[in-house]
From TrEMBL:
CC cofactor: FAD
Organism superkingdom: Bacteria
Record-stated family: Belongs to the acyl-CoA dehydrogenase family.
Organism per entry: Acidovorax facilis
Pfam (any one): Acyl-CoA_dh_N
Residues in Acyl-CoA dehydrogenase/oxidase C-terminal domain copies: 229-379
Ranges where the Acyl-CoA dehydrogenase/oxidase N-terminal domain occurs: 6-117
Presence of keyword Lipid metabolism: no
Gene3D superfamilies to which the protein is assigned, alphabetical: Acyl-CoA dehydrogenase/oxidase, N-terminal domain (1.10.540.10), Butyryl-CoA Dehydrogenase, subunit A, domain 2 (2.40.110.10), Butyryl-CoA Dehydrogenase, subunit A, domain 3 (1.20.140.10)
Protein name per Swiss-Prot or TrEMBL: Acyl-CoA dehydrogenase family protein
Length: 388
């Protein structure tokens, strides 16, 4: 078991760090304050391959292991969790399209998405189907050589500003559950698609979030991803990676907060000496660093399990998502506390990191649902030996 990164992995991470400092750091606070979706900066990330990190090579991606992708996402999230989180969602949707699309659809969209020239949204959640995703009601009916789609999606990142939608819709009857769901690649400007108002959110302000309505939207039959009835399985495979991605964004945001706190403790003086000299604050910094390293290693373990195709990869992904998003938020909150009143004002990045990281405990499956996934596996007879 080797915990050390290879030279190539370190190079990926350094490239991502340099990119984030050059392209995100000068603008992240402005994007957040003004609600700007920085498509040009995302396209620059695409030029480095960051928009198709683990998409298959046949789609124009780099086909990197998920572990390597976490190194890139963490470095970018340390500067701007909101923009990075969208890039991770785009990567997930691009991987799904690149893996399950027909050759014609893959050959058209793959190079556009992996380079960041075009962007993708992932459309699973509905107004009445959040944690219970298998109960979704958006329907796709095969009529001749087209699918006709009707329904609505909610809380869709990038909606209204992206170019293709990776959509889950019901092709089976109302009682078919997960087995009646199929996946589709839907061009975002197809007639019959309309977008709701831009949601006003606590964080993640550099990416728009809207509802999407589908009114007799017609797409060619070859825009089906995989086979009919495979959509929920495809969606869950996407979410295993998505959970690692969001966990990584929490680790990155927490690292950014820890960096700021360590520097602030050296610079800030109270009672005639730097606050770094107070043992109570030293202990707080020590606990923050310990929690962060534990979260990072759990995420990398889960990514390695997913790369290896391990039987229990989904359980490890759920564990990593639950632990890293909770621990990451706590580290950021503690860093804000160490800054005192300065942590609460926008001149410093702490309050933005905190707001952006809070939603990570909710999306890609709430942390309560992560506990359900873990507990179900742990009640199996072999679980205590298999999950270690």
């Amino acid at each position: 078991m080797d915990f050390e990164l290879t030279e190539e992995q370190r190079a990926f991470a350094q490239t991502a760090r340099d990119f984030a400092q050059a392209e995100f750091a000068p603008h992240a606070a402005h994007w957040d304050e003004e609600g700007i979706f920085p498509k040009e900066a995302i396209a620059k990330a695409g030029e480095l391959g960051f928009c198709g990190l683990y998409a298959p090579e046949a789609a124009g991606g780099l086909a990197l292991p998920r572990l390597d992708a976490t190194l890139v996402f963490e470095e970018m999230a340390a500067v701007d969790p909101s923009t990075t989180a969208f890039i991770t969602i785009h990567n997930m949707a691009t991987w799904m399209l690149g893996t399950w699309a027909t050759p014609a659809v893959r050959d058209h969209w793959g190079p556009l998405l992996t380079t960041g020239e075009k962007l993708a949204s992932y459309c699973l959640t509905e107004p009445g189907a959040g944690s219970d995703a298998a109960s979704l009601k958006t329907r796709a009916e095969l009529v001749g050589n087209e699918y006709v789609i009707n329904g609505a999606k909610a809380f869709i990142s990038g909606a209204g500003s992206t170019d293709v939608l990776v959509l889950m819709a019901r092709t089976g009857d109302a009682a078919s559950g997960a087995s009646g769901i199929s996946a589709f690649a839907v061009p975002a400007d197809t007639p019959g698609i309309s977008y709701g108002k831009k949601e006003q959110k606590m964080g993640w302000n550099s990416q728009p979030t809207r509802t999407i309505s589908f009114d007799n939207v017609r797409i060619p039959a070859d825009h089906l991803l995989g086979r009919e009835g495979e959509g929920f399985k495809i969606a869950m495979k996407g979410l295993d990676g998505g959970r690692i991605n969001i966990a990584t964004c929490s680790v990155g945001a927490a690292q950014g907060a820890l960096n700021a706190a360590q520097q602030y403790m050296q610079d800030r003086k109270q009672f005639g000496k730097p606050i770094a000299s107070f043992q109570a604050l030293q202990f707080k910094l020590a606990d923050m660093a310990t929690e962060l390293v534990a979260a990072r290693q759990m995420v990398r373990l889960a990514a390695s399990k997913l790369d290896a195709g391990a039987r229990d990869a989904s359980t490890y992904c759920a564990m990593a998502k639950r632990f890293a998003t909770d621990a990451g938020f706590t580290v950021i909150n503690d860093a804000l506390q160490l800054h005192g009143g300065y942590g609460y004002i926008r001149e410093y990045p702490l309050e933005r990191l905190l707001r952006d990281a809070r939603v990570h405990q909710i999306l890609e499956g709430t942390n309560e649902i992560m506990r359900v996934i873990i507990a179900r596996r742990m009640l199996d007879g072999d679980a205590t030996e298999a999950i270690r």
